[in-house]
Amino acid sequence: MISKRHCLHTFEHDPLWHDIISRNPYFSGLSCYDCVDCPTVDENTKVAYDEHFLTCVTMMTSHEKIIRNGSYDAHPDGHCYLVGSVTYCHCTSSFCNGVNVAVKNTK
């Protein structure tokens, strides 16, 4: 038997599949980009799916390292906040944490 997770992993880079699961009310959970030190995403960026993800999140550290993942915490779409030296920005639809982040070079 093929699991839902296996199917999502198989089609994770298919634009049509992204469209289907992000717009279909019968799918629960979210698919979110899942990477460390990734100011940009593309068709090769890892994707994490969990039926319990409530938001996708993009984090930026004080050293301007970008981290993307799913979150089990509920937040309004577009909600950003600072904890210590890390800025967290949450969004509420699949693949919404794929916005490219401009990181300025301070060297």
Produce the secondary structure layout.
Elements: H1 4-11, H2 15-23, E1 30-33, E2 35-36, E3 47-50, E4 55-60, E5 66-71, E6 80-83, E7 86-91
Antiparallel strand pairs: 1-3, 2-5, 4-5, 4-7, 6-7
**Total helical segments:** 2
Highest-level CATH class: Mainly Beta
Strand content: 25-35%
CATH topology: CD59
Query: Do you know the CATH architecture?
Result: Ribbon
Q: Which radius of gyration do the C-alpha atoms yield? A: 14 Å
Note the overall shape: globular
For the report, how would you describe the main beta sheet? 5 strands, antiparallel
In total, how many domains does the architecture comprise? Answer: 1
In which order are the strands of the major sheet placed? 2-5-4-7-6
Number of strands: 7
Report the span from N to C terminus. 52 Å
- Summarize the amount of helix as a percent range: 10-25%
Order of helices and strands: HHEEEEEEE
Mean pLDDT: 81
- Low-confidence regions: 1-12
Determine the structural class based on helices, strands and strand pairing. Answer: alpha+beta
